[in-house]
Amino acid sequence: MIAEFDKLLDEKFGIKFKDESLLDEAFTQASYVNEHPGKDLKFYERIEFLGDAVYELVVSDYIFKRYPKLPQGRLTRLRAAMVNERSFSSFARECHFDKYIRLGKGEEKAQARERDSLLCDIFESFIGAVYLDQGMKPVVKFCHQVIFPKLDEGWFDEFFDHKTELQELAQQNGPVEIEYHLLDENGPDNDRRFKVSVTIDDKEEGIGEGNSKKNAEQVAAKKALKQYLN
Amino acid sequence: MIAEFDKLLDEKFGIKFKDESLLDEAFTQASYVNEHPGKDLKFYERIEFLGDAVYELVVSDYIFKRYPKLPQGRLTRLRAAMVNERSFSSFARECHFDKYIRLGKGEEKAQARERDSLLCDIFESFIGAVYLDQGMKPVVKFCHQVIFPKLDEGWFDEFFDHKTELQELAQQNGPVEIEYHLLDENGPDNDRRFKVSVTIDDKEEGIGEGNSKKNAEQVAAKKALKQYLN
Fold this sequence. Notes:
The structure is a homodimer of 230-residue chains. Chain A has 230 residues and is mostly helical. The first copy, chain A, is 57% helix and 11% strand. The radius of gyration of chain A is 22 Å and the shape is elongated.
């Protein structure tokens, strides 16, 4: 692999490959292999197959332990949000993986390097290569650096309906009354702001603001959810 | 958990739980928890969520390394065959897991204990519990005892079309000619036997027998596949 990329992986993530050929394989598309016959090159697909399962376990383990009260249904939805093509391609770009993919000329011309589906594959094959070279631990460390902080940043929030979640979680030990109250509404017509509180059995559990009542309710519900998630 | 089950796990699989409550959780259905309120019991669903990902990685890792020439598509199909409700429920029965599930009275009456879908869940939650208690290694060991030998026994064969596989694999480095030849046909009408050979570019690569020409061809193709799988 290119020395520049080795340096990036080492400096940014503390990852140094013992077997560089795994990294090569993980970043090589079939189109490149086809253009270099006789060199016995391998392309990323097999490693991607493995990386997919490695990443899924690392994410599952993390959210299982981080949210000890979260029921299976919500764990499954959260995992699906984190194991998602759009997420993967963003992560790959953030890590500058797009620059180092080896493509055939036709694919290069067709701008495959910018294609979400390819970046998604490469993200998974990178995970697979790290796992094959060094086992589970550096993969977990990488995810703690790149992926898991995004949970707190709300990165996966758009996949959730917090009001529905709150209802499910608050009622898991019996019925409760969840109500949303408009506390305030102000600002000009083209920039209206709403402030909403949510109460569970008349106890205030969260306050949210937003540019619509609906959005403010979602924010309030998300805050109220916290007590069930830790 | 019941002492008898602890003994079975130890004697049959060499597994001794440090934290017995994980095993309890893995074998308890929600219906049992509902019938014992106030005991703060947990049911298996969360652990099953984790076990699912653990098992998928163990299987992926094994077939990736065992079949270094197998392309991604076939790895994916093989994994799907091994991560399959019908397989899981058979494994669970074989390990006598069905006897030790804790069910509510209604579910017991409804014979949930014999339901494939429940046995499938319990198999996964068992894997999850072993992983949580002792990490990856004993899960891998368990799979080497219970699951992986079934690959050689042809357990997952019915999920494959060997003729299609052979075509895909034999042609991955360019076109070849695959032909099936009827070598022999004998026996009475109600117990006819067929013998077929398969050639790749006129070289015989496998011979198969069966009660129909089609089945004999599948067996021949499976034999010819071996050279690509190791």
